[in-house]
Amino acid sequence: STQPLISSHYNFFLMKGLVTKGLSIEELLSFFFFLFFFRRLSEQSVPYDVKRQRFDSPHHETTVVNLAVPLPEEHTYSFPSSTPSPLFNTRYVPDLSVCVPPLQDSSFPYVTEITLPVAEDKLSQQVLELFQLCQQQTSDLNKKELCRIELQREIQRIFPKSRLFLVGSSLNGFGTRSSDGDLCLVVKDEPVNQKTEARHVLSLVLKLFTTKLSCYIERPQLIRAKVPIVKFRDKVSCMEFDLNVNNIVGIRNTFLLRTYAYIEKRVRPLVVVVKKWASFHDINDASRGTLNSYSLVLMVLHYLQTLPEPILPSLQKKYPESFDPTMQLHLVHQVPCTIPPYLSKNESSLGDLLIGFFKYYATEFDWSHQMISVREAKAIPRPDGVAWRNKFICIEEPFDGTNTARAVHEKQKFDFIKNEFFRWRRQGNFK
């Protein structure tokens, strides 16, 4: 059992009097590092149902549906209203440039070396160590990509013109060892009604999973959310996946974030450590009314954009053609390879940036009147629209302008999130 080790380590801090005096940011991160490492070991023995079934919030508008209706193999489906699109005439190859060696079927340029910042102080070294422990491995990505290829072949028997995209943290550069695989099934190049069309498509996919593919797919579930998904576990790779239909913005923002991830070498370590910090402190679960990982990433990018000497620009302003929301999807994955590194005059260490991140959201950002906008690279006034009223946290989605933090709809949860920033700001002994 790891519990005695955790307790004895914590007792060591107590014996030193660090709890009563107040932990420094370095000591907190050391303790967090230790606890995270052993929590991760202990979670390996936690049953799948306990770890993954987090759709029980009474305020989370989802319904779980299990269907086991036989799917006639000879049935195929199409959308007559769809017009021919280059999307379905071009072989999709995921962009694995810069950080991860290309998969065997990749055909675009890549850089073989991964550049990380040099850590010249203890806290920066701890950030780097935690990042290297937690970051998604090449083997993880290979397993997800193999599952995508196999599923696409099976799904195309039902929807011949469809394409299956790997999106989200698996490809955006901010993935971790525990990241689920996010898949977007594109059945046509026009928007689909998420309440009707998307659910219908997913119900057919669910039938496929529960019949023909039942030997390979474990616990498939249809989640009737605002953007409905099918959740499932691939028995071969032991990876967990969420599959949506035509959530096109997720494809576009995947490669926008990927570009941010690799144009400045301090971005990825800082984002991954913040995600792990948030998860450890229970403020990284949208199904329970806190922040989703996408919002946390945007919060870090926004902070780096708003420093007196910015570390990141607004890519959408600097390269509007590359991030045109009307760009054909089969071209989107090429964008990260075309954007050069951003050379910032800001030489702050990872440790200083982590401390500054907590300070910014604890004391500087105006939660009541401002909205986070990575698109504008600044905090902007909250919109007056109905969709933004009575929202505790406003974070603009860079492409469609929606609120990525809309899951935080209870004041108690909002206060809990803010208190974590205040607590870490105080523990860091900021002036």
From TrEMBL:
It is found in: Cytoplasm. Its main location: cytoplasm. GO terms for biological process: mRNA processing; regulation of gene expression; RNA 3'-end processing. Residues 349-403 form the PAP-associated domain. Its cofactor is Mg(2+); Mn(2+). Its EC number is 2.7.7.19. One of its GO terms (molecular function) is ATP binding. Keywords: ATP-binding, Cytoplasm, Magnesium, Manganese, Metal-binding, mRNA processing, Nucleotide-binding, Transferase. This is polynucleotide adenylyltransferase. It comes from Anser cygnoides.
